[in-house]
Amino acid sequence: MSVGIEETSSPKPRKRPGAKAPVRPAADKVKVSIVLSADVDFKLSVASAALRLDRSALVNQILAESPTMRRFVVQDRAKPAGEAAEAVSA
Length: 90
Description:
This protein is an all-alpha fold and about 90 residues long. It has a domain at about 35-70. The chain is built from five helices and no strands. It has helices spanning about 5-10, 40-50, 55-65, 65-70, 80-90. The longest helix is centred in the middle third of the chain and has 14 residues, at about 40-50. It is flat, with a radius of gyration of 28 Å.
């Protein structure tokens, strides 16, 4: 007439498989960290608020228009054979 402990205890819940990471297209944005002086940080915050842009968009715009950044060009010269043939025939 005794009831065993094994019969009354509830079984462990099964573990759920982990969620798969969403498949994302190639990122055109990269998260970076930079160190700014307090004065520059304040000016960046004020300028971004005045232009109604987030700080990242404003920094991206400033750097894209910078003469220093325009000085350098990155180009992938290894084109697939199909693209090279099209360029010659055009």
